Amino acid sequence: MATTNGLPTLKIAFEAAAAAVVSRTKKGVAAVMVRDENAQGVYSISSTLFIPSGLGEANKAHIRTAFQGSDRGEPSQVVLVVIATGTSDTTALEAGLKLLEAYSIDYLAGPPDVTEDELDVLNTWVLAQREQYNTVKLVRPYLTAGSDEMGIIELDETGLANKDGPVTAAAYCARLAGIFAGVPVSMSATNVSMSELTAVTPRTMLEQQTAINNGKLIFVHDGLQAYIARAVNSLTTIPDKGNEDWSKIKIVEGMDLIRYYLRNTIRQSYMGRYANTYDNKQLLVAAIQDYFQYLESAGVLNPGQSYAQVDYDRQLEWINTQGVSTTNMSRQEVLEYQTGSWVFIRCGGRLVDAQEDFEVVFNTL
């Protein structure tokens, strides 16, 4: 007889996970790296008041930009990584990233004077973290070739300026990390304004469109304020089983949050707690379906398109690897076959995009 011990706990855990995704409003975490001779280490700070006093004034000002956010929200925390000075090699940066592995972050910006070699290290580190289902995305300057990764956002701006003078793209990435971390999962960063900028890279409308299509994050200036033209990441090569909207920062943020909470909830509330029977697999399926329905009702996932089920194809493949003939097995027999410690679940849904493109027709009477 199937056990149902712990079912309420599992259901509550998934409800909490769904609520965590929905309540992502103004609760993201940005990570910022700086070089300084003093106060080296990692600091999780919730306010500019807690910026280490021993840092240089330029570094303090740089860190404050990550807290600014936008009219759509501010980050809940900034994880500050202070590394040793010097850029002759990547040793200091690598040491800082090692320390950062103990923290859960959403967006990362390297030092304002980041080198090309360090950008390569940052790319590699972020992609490795994402392979482990961590939610970190890198915000970096665009150089000569795009990264073509949905976890890497590349700012292509060479004409930035504020009231104090020119601003490099690398130095502005901390500001962007804070903006992205503060945007709710129900919104996008497209058209977020940055009033402190007095100039951006001049582009024609065609050049703007081309840059965006090539996975570059760019700004536009309407004569009054600068705006993010379109909140895109560097992905331009869409995977065979992927969608074009994976190139949007909002969509990837939603995907990351759902995967993160889904994985962690299973690990914390299911793994090792249940006998691996078909009925208990269906218990997990039902809990995931409830999780998705909550997200659908909250406008995170598109209604009616979410699903969860025991993965028939993976079950069949696993049985065959055990040397068992499946020729005469019915579909239900395959689904109910005892699979050792393995649980194969297939699930998915479609994230709801933000309103970014409009067509309004005005007819005169």
Automatic annotation (TrEMBL):
Tail sheath protein C-terminal domain location: 243-314
Endpoints of the signal sequence: none
Domain of life: Bacteria
Family designation: Belongs to the myoviridae tail sheath protein family.
Name of this chain's protein: Phage tail sheath protein
Natural source organism: Candidatus Flavonifractor intestinigallinarum
